[in-house]
Amino acid sequence: MKRQAATAALILSAVLLVTACGTKTQPTLAPTNSTETGAKQTNKTTEANQTNTTNETNDNTSPKTNTQTEENVKLVQFTDADSGIQVQVPQGWTKSLVSGGDYSGWKFTNPNDANQSETVVTSTCVGCYMDANNKADPTLVIPKTATDPQTKASTATSVTYAFTASGNTNPGLGKVVVSTDKSGYAYVETLFPQNQASVSSDVIDSLQLNR
């Protein structure tokens, strides 16, 4: 009996030990991966937002194109009784005198862009525009400052030409008119932006020499 009781006690102890080991609580793993992933996603979103904000800021602070060349040039009538010249000129532009030898005139310059100008000149030189046959040739008095002049239209007493000016990207347009009584000539040249080509044409068409 004593042996059987001892054996039963050993078996019971073994069962209790196995049971205790089987019910041992397993450690809980913190979701570090998901937390780190969420943090990384948050950082990426923040960085993207910062990048977008920076791009928007850069776009807003980018230098804007000068709108002066986009504005229409307003023309007003200009008349000089002494020279007999009549032509349209830009309103509000700075006027300065030009002269030399047998010519004189005016230069009108855009106060906001020195590359935009209109020059009006008259001359009392008659022989300057007479050819070898003593016939008027307006092309002979196209200013030498007009680089590579290209004739666009001509008559016996006038010539309209396109040209380029050194150091100036604006297209040039000019016109020479000679007097019918051999008392001299006049010319006008414009250096206006390309989008003001029609205004340049209006200036050219308005030139008159009344002598």
Automatic annotation (TrEMBL):
Residues 40-61 have a biased composition (Low complexity). The keyword Signal applies. Residues 25-39 have a biased composition (Polar residues). It comes from the Bacteria. Keywords: Signal. The keyword Signal applies. Residues 1-20 form the signal peptide. Residues 25-70 are annotated as: Disordered. This is Lipoprotein. It comes from Alicyclobacillus fodiniaquatilis.
